[in-house]
User: Fold this.
Amino acid sequence: MKNLFFVLAVLFLVSCSQGEGGQSKKLTLSGTIYIEPSLASKVGRNDRLFIIARRPEGGPPLAVQKIVNPEFPLKYWLSQEDVMIPGVEFTGEVTVVARIDKDGQAGPPQPGDLEGSWKGNPIKVGDQKVDILIDRLY
Assistant:
């Protein structure tokens, strides 16, 4: 009986530690977003921060997070939960951009928006310490 309990406990622990598709860990991309000090006063209370990962060849965003009223520095992570199109896997190479959007709507940058990107783009999903400096004003 002890052996059966032990086997069941091991199977339970193994199944809990595996993600979808039998992956041993959930792939995330993470880092910290900073803002250029000279631009900090341009961030308003109702601004939205979009963290966007897309394939290097372009196209629609692969994964996006929207954060209301961000405070910097801001630690972030993107994972499968942030993928925009159901059934698409958060894997492979991506480019990462952080945009402070004045009107709160996703889309191309507009006058007054602020943006920064990871200087090492493209990167692989799973990379850590992908720090972004928001340093451009449109």
In short: The chain has one domain: 27-137.
